Amino acid sequence: MRLVTARLKKDKKEIIGIVNPERTHMAEIKALGFNFNSMLELIEQITPEDFEKLEQIDFGATKNLFSLEDIEFLSPIPKPKHDIICLGVNYAAHAAEFGREAPQVPVYFGKRATETTGHLGVLDGHLDVDEFLDYEVELAVIIGKKAKKIKPEEVEDYIFGYSVFNDFTSRTLQKGHMQWFLGKSTDGFAAMGPWIVTKDELKMPFTVDLECRVNGEVRQQSNTDLMVHGINKVISQMSQNIALYPGDIIATGTPSGVGMGFDPPKMLKKGDVVECEVEGLGILKNTIG
């Protein structure tokens, strides 16, 4: 299933919905008889029976069906409960483009996300603060139930689904502060979408391609099989020390080809269009404002 958070263009009503298999329309979940007010509520409260009912929807006979052209995509989780957990230098080629060795143990950092940016959203690049704005395509994992001290082989059971993520970064801030939090956490710099794809559509073990394009030019191109530390390992390891909760977002790292890795650097400018694509999940597209 593909689950979306959206705002109707006609009356600005914010709704959550399920997208039809043709990816042309969405049905409002509340109109289908479910009492979920937000994506976080759905993730926290959905039962196996609810899930089965959503899978069996007859879109042809459904009321409150909206064309995707009539909605404004929001991030699937517009206001996460917790900071986003990110994996740093989790692709060897990305480490190499900065003259580093791939880390032998996972590198974790937090990305504050009081507001997130959705598909087709215009991103305030804050270029007046830092003109070195960069992109990073990533696979995001969304946790489905509380995970504490779980084993690697149990991880899939605790996942709700996946999405496309762009870890926008202000490189001068990142470098100047000698840590990654501020350069990664500018308002709006967590972009995710266009929807959440539930885990039943991407069974483990899987390998999917990732690609990032800027104004149509391919900048990043890789595969999740090239992660230094895999999803099962990192989620299990985190859970030994940090309880993970429904709706928590884990960004699993970016491959080589970021703007700062070019000589000279290819940084984002106002008006640039950035497309992040993860095979099977869709395309997240944003314009720099």
Helical percent range? Answer: 10-25%
> Which overall shape is indicated by the principal axes computed on the Cα atoms?
globular
Distance between the termini: 32 Å
The ordered H/E elements are EEEHHEEEHEEEEEEHHEEEHEEE
Task: Give me the Rg, rounded.
Answer: 18 Å
Low-confidence stretches: none
Summarize model confidence as the mean pLDDT: 95
Briefly note the structural class of the backbone. Answer: alpha+beta
Strand count, sense and barrel status of the largest sheet are: 11 strands, mixed
The tally of beta strands, per DSSP, is 18
Approximately what portion of the residues adopt beta-strand conformation?
Answer: 25-35%
| Total of DSSP H or I helical runs spanning 4+ residues | 6
Short synopsis of the structure:
With 289 residues, the protein is an alpha+beta fold. 14% of the residues lie in helices and 32% in strands. The chain is built from 6 helices and 18 strands.
Task: Please explain how this structure is put together.
The chain has 289 residues and is α+β, with helices and mostly antiparallel strands. It contains six helices and 18 strands. It has helices at residues 39-45, 48-55, 92-97, 171-176, 181-184, 231-239; strands at residues 2-8, 14-19, 25-28, 65-67, 71-73, 84-88, 107-111, 122-123, 133-134, 137-143, 159-167, 169-170, 190-198, 209-214, 217-223, 249-251, 273-278, 282-288. The longest helix has 9 residues, at 231-239. The model has no long low-confidence stretch (mean pLDDT 95).
Topology overview:
Blueprint lengths: L1 E7 L5 E6 L5 E4 L10 H7 L2 H8 L9 E3 L3 E3 L10 E5 L3 H6 L9 E5 L10 E2 L9 E2 L2 E7 L15 E9 L1 E2 H6 L4 H4 L5 E9 L10 E6 L2 E7 L7 H9 L9 E3 L21 E6 L3 E7 L1
Parallel strand pairs: 6-16, 8-18
Antiparallel strand pairs: 1-2, 1-5, 1-13, 2-3, 3-4, 6-7, 9-12, 10-11, 10-16, 11-13, 14-15, 14-17, 17-18
